[in-house]
């Protein structure tokens, strides 16, 4: 974990935890399970509660404009709540059974609680952000609302693409920009706004976050096919099991190679099978599909996107007047994004 992440967790997590534990029962305990603070039986747990990327970036953006990091805490907590609202709903919609090495909320507490607690976290995010009642909070809330709408648009696109035989690379990148890039863009501007930044500065930091989000998602897509389950906390070949049109798959299908043709035939056959039949594939079948994606260039192209978006993220910081220590942290975090294993 980078120093930026460690510091973000130290400052924002106590406030986040106090807010979540103030929810009405049983939503408080269900949410606490999701965050890894308790186990399925309500006992204290030291489970991995996530990297807390968004709070760390929000606080760094506050310092980037010369404000104290405490000024950005409402934004840091709000974006983390929105992120986890989306995870609770996405896990249910995608049928994901594991997150952070544990059963997902809908598996433990049922689909209704997953939906309800997700809604509660989203509402709580808005309450926390607006509570100070300053002009800056209004500006910050508008950015978070716009980002949340794009996040939902991205999830809708992701689900729609699962039922299409072909998706273009441009469509896939647009979806990932909405689903991942928008909230990271919000995180890296919301703290600056709360710290009194002008729109030009906030927009530049937002651009850094958007491109960082695309790099982050590209790496996530690689881990979703080739990631180590011990590191990712998900099943082997997790995205292939869900038939996701992630970037490596889309890039492979667009390559025009023989491997792409074979992959397309297999995926077309999938769409004609029942859910039960398509769920019976063994590990060798998924390994074969991963090999076809790699042979068709899907892995290399996705890695290329990750590095290109990393470069654009760092370039967005050029010309911004900020403390050198903060600039170094943001650049180091962008570097971390493209080499991470989880």
UniProtKB/TrEMBL annotation:
<dbReference type="InterPro" id="IPR008949">
    <property type="entry name" value="Isoprenoid_synthase_dom_sf"/>
</dbReference>
<dbReference type="Pfam" id="PF00348">
    <property type="entry name" value="polyprenyl_synt"/>
</dbReference>
<dbReference type="InterPro" id="IPR033749">
    <property type="entry name" value="Polyprenyl_synt_CS"/>
</dbReference>
<comment type="similarity">
    <text>Belongs to the FPP/GGPP synthase family.</text>
</comment>
<keyword id="KW-0479">Metal-binding</keyword>
<dbReference type="GO" id="GO:0046872">
    <property type="term" value="F:metal ion binding"/>
</dbReference>
<dbReference type="GO" id="GO:0008299">
    <property type="term" value="P:isoprenoid biosynthetic process"/>
</dbReference>
<dbReference type="GO" id="GO:0004659">
    <property type="term" value="F:prenyltransferase activity"/>
</dbReference>
<keyword id="KW-0808">Transferase</keyword>
<dbReference type="InterPro" id="IPR000092">
    <property type="entry name" value="Polyprenyl_synt"/>
</dbReference>
<protein>
    <submittedName>
        <fullName>Dimethylallyltranstransferase</fullName>
    </submittedName>
</protein>
<keyword id="KW-0460">Magnesium</keyword>
